[in-house]
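2024-03-11 09:14:02 DEBUG pipeline.ingest accepted 1 chain
2024-03-11 09:14:02 DEBUG pipeline.ingest length=207
2024-03-11 09:14:03 DEBUG pipeline.predict start
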Amino acid sequence: MLIFGWKVRFKTKSEGEFFSPAGGRDAPYRLVEARRWFSLFFIPLIPLSVVGTYVECQLTKATYDPSILANPTTADFRVQLAAAVREVVSAVAVADGNVTDRERQLAVEVVRTYVPDYDGAALAGDLARAADSPLDARLGYLATSLSEHGKEQVLTAASTIMTADGVIDDRDRQVVEWIGEKLTMSRAHVRGVIETVAAINESRAVD
């Protein structure tokens, strides 16, 4: 007597690391394919159609649609944010055609918050590449990923360089306002950040 039927088998297609919503942090995952097989005497013999594919978090065992793998990991996001701050600082510093010592000092201090080993030599390289940096695309990416507080941090970095010498050049302001626009911040929000940073720098200069 023949005993035949269909059986679903699960196969790991790939493995890696992703941001796990359930875990709230980066975690290992496996991409699993579920395929129906024709079986004879309970033994799978012939592969048939794929009935589904899903991502399984190895930390929480929660499952997700494979599209979740397009989301950046925390590590990827930190790299993008650090690169954006470097490019923002450089773009503002070179906007008026004259990078002062004070601007260089503050630029290094600002970027070190994100890149601890950042120094004057790294800044010199960033300034030289400022005109060719992918800042437009980078800000577009961050605009969809950053919280409002995160956007303020990026704009604060730009505003710190703009107000470094106590006098705001129109060319510097245009770049900072463009950065805020790319981050999808309102004009009022951008003005508020600029004014706050200017007041902080002014009080430091007085002290």
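2024-03-11 09:14:41 DEBUG pipeline.report DSSP finds seven helices and four strands in the chain.
2024-03-11 09:14:41 DEBUG pipeline.predict end
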